[in-house]
Description:
heterodimer; A: alpha+beta; FAD/NAD(P)-binding domain; D-Amino Acid Oxidase, Chain A, domain 2; 3 domains; eight-stranded mixed β-sheet; 13 helices; globular; B: alpha/beta; Immunoglobulin-like; seven-stranded mixed β-sheet; five-stranded parallel β-sheet; 8 helices; 28 strands
Amino acid sequence: MKKVFDVVIVGGGIVGCAVAWYFSHFDLEILLLEKESDVCCGVSKANTGIIHSRSYWTPSTLKGELHLRSLVLFPQAEKELNLHSPQTGALTVALIREEMTFLKVLKERGNISGAEIIGPKESIEIEPSLNPRIFACYYDPETRIISPFALNLALAEFAALNGVHFILDEEVTGFESMGNRIRILGRNDWYLGKRVINCAGLYATKLARLSNDAVSAHRFFRGQYFVLDRECAPLIRHVLYPVPTEESKGILVSPTPEGNILVGPNFEPVDEEDTATTFWGLKEVEEGARKLIPFLPLEQTITTFSGLRPTLPERDFRIFFSSSLPGLLHLCGIESPGLTASLGIAEYVGEKLKDSGITLREKRISPRTAFPVFRNCGFEERERLIAENPDWGKIICRCEEVTLAEVKHALSSPIPASTLDGLKRRVRVMAGRCQGGFCGMYLPTIMMQELDCDVKEVFKSTRGSFYLLGKIEDVVKENAPTC
Amino acid sequence: MPRHVEAQVVVIGGGPAGMAAALSSFENGAEPVFLLERGKYLGGILNQCIHPGFGLHYFGEELTGPEYAEQFIERLKKTRVEVFLDTTVLEITKDRVVRAVNPAGVWEFRAENVVLSMGCRERTRGMLRIPGHRPAGIFTAGLAQYLVNIEGYLPGKEIVILGSGDIGLIMARRLTLEGACVKAVVEIKDSLSGLLRNYVQCLLDFDIPLLLSHTVTNILGKDRVEGVVVNKVNTHGQIIPEGEQFIGCDTLLLSVGLIPENDLSKKAGIPLCPFTGGPFVDEYFACDLEGFFACGNVAAVFDLVDYVTMVSTMVGGKIGSPSLDRKPPRHMLVPASGVSQVIPQRIREGKEGFLFIRSQHAFRDAVLSLSLEGREFQAMRIPLCYPSEMVKVNLQDIQWPSEKGEVQISIRGKRIHGVG
């Protein structure tokens, strides 16, 4: 007999994991299916990582409503998740007088005590690298920054700790009605759920259309970014927004909780799910960012990347039950501010399911304990950790000061890393200035030992992304020289 | 509680520079001397350089990297230099407290002298801003060298190498010998970055094409590299859109330059030279901050390990030496036209030691010129010089003027284009 889950979540991005986090507070059998070998692989891994304050909500939209709800939920969630989002505050920069109107709108919309519109002189005082030729800034004290990886993983780990089943490497290909249940078809197996929540991010409309539900296909808009060396961190203190365009929040310069600076994104339509960076895209980002910080040290770039926004024509979230399969809830068009709104989305989904007849009975939950981060520990604490386990005394990544203990833990945690990118998202190996030039020497061996796998199974991300071809003698045996 | 250790000398990094500095400071009477190495073995990058070509200047014979390292490892064994392996330094303060960790715990050394010999790291794709996808199969050449020579793995079958630096050239040959196909070495400049002998022995002898004035402008492949797009560049290094070519490959190696590894030096507040990327040093390789020395690639990227050994050995002799006064240096050296780097940048006496100069371009019939306040006080003829080979001058061969001040160093001559 197949197990019947009360709730099946499709997709392990921030939204899927937030939904899992939410439902794991209740006495329910929950399953989460993710097509990649890890959570946080799609839209969730490539965004600006900002918890936008209420100054930036969009009135009379669903995304606006869920944005506000989410902000209420974050403080308690951060406690449970053992996660911290630094409150950096933000400056929205009006370059010319005409843009002042927008600053006033933000101030009114937020109605935040301590928020104010300030002139260039005052702006430079609190943000010395800012372009001195601006017209004015809106200062918002409540904006926070968060690591999207850390949030996504913390939500997933909390859910796993509190009973949610995760199945990775399982792509959902369709749904079938089974009376009052839904059969979820995967590439490897099928599953039964009373309720199914489509949190497939980029692929959400594709899945919705597979179940014959009327929704426009997503249009993808790409955004490219630079990541700057942590040496640049003292350069900026706040999240810096330009005045937004019709299409997007514009090109930002933002600190990250890890101590880097993030620059981007631009906004460009792409045909497919194309996450390449381009010469012109990066140039556009550079030009945009220099309007805010003229002497932005882009020569200190450590990497560039791009992310996609899955958008609907109405540029709003659409969360609706399937007309053909009652009990199947679709979450489409979850673009910016998806990360900020994620907890609000989860709560809203909870209400929808409750309305549809699911009983939410609270259970005792175990809060997530955060594993120590060596870099953030003092030397006394480090001494204690090493005495406990000598792996804490072995530095694997020098740029980010990551120890063998942390790498091993990431490979065996509740939602374990199984790839190099998975390790990067968890413990920041390969994420520093040398981009894996140093730790790349040791990680394959550690992964092979800890995961008990062959070198050919050490992947960067997907199954096709092998890191090394194999042992020299084996490869030479298998392949004649190619030229 | 962290272990506190008093030291006369702490050397950070057990590569060729650190080994020579530790050895010579001990041999000159310093004790205790600690040599801290983050790897499992002494020798640093020499261990993965299994090709010959080391030691011609210093030992008068041709050795492989591990053989060269072995000379020092054996000599160190006969001393009371305390070698700490598997030990990573995380912090140095300006008053020379060195904090390190290893599997035994946290160590705090209070050192009278600190020798910085952390070597260098490789430039990455991100720094070059090469657009495209981010698949597996992009390696810096040195990392690939470690994976092939130490771990015995083949990174890929069809290889494109960006940059004609020495590690890239050496790896082109290595990978060919291991059965891979190196499709091209792509160099943005109109001349070779590495040594001429490496071009001959690693590319010409194996029919590997070298594309000068070209660069990689796009990386394709979602999971693993599937190919790169290569474009010609003009004399200013700008991409010429026409005539781009696609080269199918599963691996891209980057041999696009080395950066002295000075994270720790910065934490200690040691002033760094914008041209070398390493600390400013005087002719004894002492830094501007008292009690600190910098030798080897942490100070400036050298092209021959023999030179690294020479300067590092001198450092040992100067540590604790009363002749090392802290008076302001007489001369500050700065690179001028035709010169990209000069080390040392400070001259105190100008009697012993060397001046290393890296030219900006390849020149023939060149003149190396030293001027003080715009007045040339020394000119030396150099028949040939390449950016890949530092010009080495004995300091005692220079007639240093009696007045103090800034000395500009320039090279003029006929530019050589192509591989030369």
